[in-house]
Amino acid sequence: MKYTLNLLGLRCPEVIMTLRKTARKLKKGQKIFLLTDDKFSNKDIILFCRFMKHRLLSMSSDKIPYTYLIEIKTK
């Protein structure tokens, strides 16, 4: 199951706080497709995944909206 999280218009730290809150509700193996326009999200999402041990499957930061596909690894 893939969950879409539209965070357009939110800025740091709201992007990470909302992502973390959503990730906590999901089961291991589920995926989050994330949309954001926060220019700092590239670094923040990479660090979030590394710290929380989630897997960043893909990302596109060439143009807005930036997109990320994250697989939940912890539970």
From TrEMBL:
List the Pfam families hit by this protein, alphabetically: TusA
- tRNA processing as a keyword of this entry, yes or no, is yes
The record ties this protein, via Gene3D superfamilies, to: TusA-like domain
Instruction: Classify the source by domain of life.
Output: Bacteria
- Note the InterPro entries from the entry: TusA-like (IPR001455), TusA-like_sf (IPR036868)
Gene Ontology biological process terms from the UniProt entry: tRNA processing
UPF0033 domain location: 3-71
Q: Identify this protein by name.
A: Sulfur carrier protein TusA
Name the source organism: Buchnera aphidicola (Cinara kochiana kochiana)
Gene name?
tusA
